Amino acid sequence: MTSLPPQPLSPLDGRYKASVQPLGEYLSEAGLNRARVQVEVEWLIYLTDHSMFGSSPLEAAQKESLRALYTEFSQADIDWLAEKEAVTRHDVKAVEYLVRHRLDELGLASIAELTHIACTSEDINNLSYALTVSLAVREVWLPAYRGVIAELTRQAQAFRADAMLSRTHGQPATPTTMGRELAVTAWRLRRIETQIEGTEYLGKFSGATGTFAAHVAADPEASWTTISQEFVESLGLTWNPLTTQIESHDWQAELYNRVSHANRVLHNLATDIWTYISIGYFRQIPVAGATGSSTMPHKINPIRFENAEANLELSSALLDSLAATLVTSRLQRDLTDSTTQRNIGVGLGHSLLALDNLARGLREIDLDRDALAYDLDHNWEVLAEAIQTVIRAEVVAGRSSIDDPYAMLKDLTRGKRIGRDDLVAFVEKLDIGDAAKARLVALTPATYVGLADELVDRLPQA
The organism sits in which domain of life (predicted)? Predict the structure, then answer.
């Protein structure tokens, strides 16, 4: 048997590449290296702007040419770094050499020794990860997440008045509306969205053990904490003043826990929609040319929701692991985070793939109102709750002397299937006021939905 040509090992880089490719812009090795170049270049510019170590400010054109090292980062740079790292066996050192090499080409060799000065590799790495993760979340993951919320919100409005039988513990229960149930999930997802939007992306820039020791040795008069804070904040990050060699990764743990929480709510959505399809509340819209089963021509399988379910589980498993392990580093530094952080894109990638499937799946279903009406009309016993509650209110108001209304309705309905005529006959004989009796006689499972329709208005519009 001949060997295959080189193949991607992860399905995210193979079968599902098109769905997750936008994350590669930031969370690939190339994306990380581009951010590293950005940090190195911006540090050079900061130092020269402030005439540190006897340097002079660069001209605007020189700054522009320097920034082009990361704004026009190319395949040639990716290849150059790969070749250099094969020699250095150190990824950040390869980036430093790239910047030095480009300085020579730009006629800026005079500031070459400022490259990476007073920096440990983790000063560059932690800022680079903060930059790439923040961009990946804000530019790619959150828009996809909001897309699912927007579709849920649209359907919540569209189906807000469509009564359906609830199922608590899987059994027929007090009716609701389909729109109200979708609004519940959208509300949950919006809360988590706000939390994720509020993530602080922290950065440190304080040397080999976080003490600014080399900085002070090189320039004892400089206000290094102020310089560090200004530089970190100039990158759009939040400064962390107290760290070891590494930034403590607490912000990452917080973010990944929140995304994992979102995953689990989305997982609940996927399983609920799957169940509604299974019992006929939603019908799937056929997609031209698609095959549901290799042997059963009639089938349309809910594969979008099944795919989402599986990918959400994978994503949360990895993000939970990242959140649990990144917050621990032996003494002042160990390298366990080096490998784990390279899998951030995998964790977010499986979540993004799930969001893509959920968005598509939600657009490929439609409500079967006949199925909803059939179920409601065959479960009149769910009105037992309403009847016993009205009786109790009538007793309190002095308009009834019925003893233990709950037990009375339990004897009438528990484990039994009864219809409208049975309930009307029962209500007509009750010792309650005429107004209450009229309300109960007029009540149907389809109208016993309380404020479900109105509650949808509590959901902010997309």
Answer: Bacteria
